[in-house]
DNA sequence: TTCTTATTTGGCAATTTAACCAAATAAGAA
DNA sequence: TTCTTATTTGGTTAAATTGCCAAATAAGAA
């Protein structure tokens, strides 16, 4: 990898890292439907407000969500819709992994009943 | 988030985490074209063999790549082709971020020349 | 068997990440 | 201004990640 390639893959990795956390994936899922305040997301997630606020700032810095202040509340919304396809692919991987697991299980169960 | 939701988002996050590293993204990119041995990838990346081997095992455990031994060498190949669309989306985010940066720059440069 | 090449595993040090609490800040309402 | 609500920031601690070295393992060649 030369310097340019390193820069490119680091830039990609930084965005993917921003998504690589259960709470942040949940947030992305929620924001697909509608904008939400920090408070609403905090309640849904069930963590400390400061924790959720920090998750949101990670997503914002990565350019995945954007925020808009209305009164004292801050509404967050999804900035990049293609993130959805993204999740679809992850589901494919999970499905494939699960199928592999099932095959292992069915194999062993068969042997046991024979 | 209830227990099932937590499980779901954790499963997704685990796969995304496996991709969230520059060297591993590079590996995925390389494997799109053809299968590669640990040695080949190690040379391309320019890190320790053990480091690359561990990156590959992270990708393998996540179900993203699979391996096949031929003689003393181990060939790794991409297991889930949809990972490509995935990267496409990441590029969109980067592009959007870059455009935002450019706007900031053009704004300031204009002001300065006025 | 012994030697060589290719890869994986174990272990350690350095860095990064994540969660909570407490304190600071922002915007209105009283 | 003072009070209240909503959010962010700072700080601390625990856990996870990464990279390299050294050693172990695997497969074939001599």
Keywords summarizing the entry:
5 helices; alpha+beta; globular; DNA-binding; Arc Repressor Mutant, subunit A; homodimer
N-to-C SSE series of chain A? HHEHHEEH
Number of domains of chain A: 2
Briefly note the CATH topology name of the largest domain in chain A.
Arc Repressor Mutant, subunit A
Fraction in helix of chain A: over 70%
Low-confidence stretches of chain A: none
Strands in their spatial order, largest beta sheet of chain A: 1-3-2
| Greatest contact between two chains | A-B, 43 and 43 residues
Number of beta-strand segments of chain A:
3
CATH architecture of the largest domain in chain A, by name, is Orthogonal Bundle
Structural class computed from helices and strand pairing of chain A: alpha+beta
Mean pLDDT of chain A: 91
What is the CATH homologous superfamily assignment of the largest domain in chain A?
Winged helix-like DNA-binding domain superfamily/Winged helix DNA-binding domain
What is the CATH class designation of the largest domain in chain A? Mainly Alpha
Main sheet summary of chain A: 3 strands, antiparallel
Proportion of strand residues of chain A: 5-15%
The shape of chain A is globular
How far do the termini of chain A sit from each other? 53 Å
Counting copies of identical and different chains, the oligomeric state is homodimer
């Amino acid at each position: 990898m030369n310097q340019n390639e390193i820069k490119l893959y680091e830039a990609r990795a930084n965005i993917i890292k921003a998504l690589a956390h259960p709470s942040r994936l949940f947030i992305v899922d929620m924001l697909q439907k509608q904008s939400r305040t920090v408070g609403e997301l905090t309640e849904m997630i069930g963590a400390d407000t400061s924790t959720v606020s920090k998750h949101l700032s990670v997503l914002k810095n990565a350019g995945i969500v954007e925020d808009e202040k209305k009164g004292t509340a801050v509404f967050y919304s999804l900035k990049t819709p293609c993130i959805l396809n993204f999740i679809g692919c992850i589901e494919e991987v999970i499905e494939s992994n699960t199928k592999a697991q099932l095959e292992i299980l069915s194999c062993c169960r068969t042997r046991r009943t024979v």
